[in-house]
Amino acid sequence: MGIRKLGYVGLDVTDVAAWTDLLGRTLGVGVTRVKSGTEEVALAELDEFKYRVALYPSTEDSPRELGWIVDSPPELDRLTQRLAAAGFAVADGSADEKELRGATHLRWFTDPVGYRVELAVGEAKVRLAAERPAGGPGVTGLGHFVLAGPKVEELRELYESVLEFKLTDYRAPGLFFFRCNRTHHSIALTNADTPSIHHLEFEHGSIDDVGRAYDRAKANDVPISISLGRHMNDKAISFYVRNPSGFHLEIGCGGIEVGDDWVPHDFGRSDEWGHHHADANPFATPTA
């Protein structure tokens, strides 16, 4: 009960055309442009629902909203009460915002590092299935994101104690993975001087889909920022590209699911194999 899954991410971006090219040519993800109020928004269609990533034209690149899907209106009310008791001011989303997200109910608050976090009830199912490149299902949905920034303990308190996420595992001293369903993690938190999304992950249907995306990335000269590899903790096989906003986009498949009997633990090293970074790896030795 409560938060069911990661629903969508909104990004302010300086180059919508470059994002659209990356999504289309390399990942086979369609983009629809719509009007929301006075803004034109590009919606990335990862699955049969209306969208999972919204791109807002802007003069800077930054996260705009992080959206979680809640089970029901009563659960939304219960979480609102928990947030208010913890000192967070919760507001209703506007009619335009609800329409864009395909939600029947929408509320939002600001997290400890200044990001807008949304809680939505309802998703608009607008197609039987998204169009995909030949050879496989390709992208099947939005997986998770890693939030880097200061105030990690305050963020942990928010997600674990207030929003009722469960700690899956961690790497001492400063990298924590949380789940809101059976998927290994929907969000991870780690320390950094300034807030940012370290990466956003797109789920793929198979290792062959990941491999085909890797080939298209190479053919299209997309910068591969982290090579193909398998993570130690969730066992996912993936690679990462540097997206037009400067952070990583993870292309992965095969992450494990966990149950209520799972025991949180320090999983030690970051990878079973691979995942070599083109630049310095900030997670090689997580800072305190």
TrEMBL record:
Cofactor requirements of the protein: Fe(2+)
Keywords of the record: Aromatic hydrocarbons catabolism, Dioxygenase, Iron, Metal-binding, Oxidoreductase
Domain of life: Bacteria
Pfam families referenced in this protein's UniProt entry, alphabetically: Glyoxalase
Gene3D superfamilies the record matches: 2,3-Dihydroxybiphenyl 1,2-Dioxygenase, domain 1
The keyword Metal-binding belongs to this UniProt entry's keyword annotation: yes
Signal peptide: none
Iron keyword on record: yes
Domain VOC: 5-122, 141-254
Similarity field: Belongs to the extradiol ring-cleavage dioxygenase family.
Protein's name in the database: VOC family protein
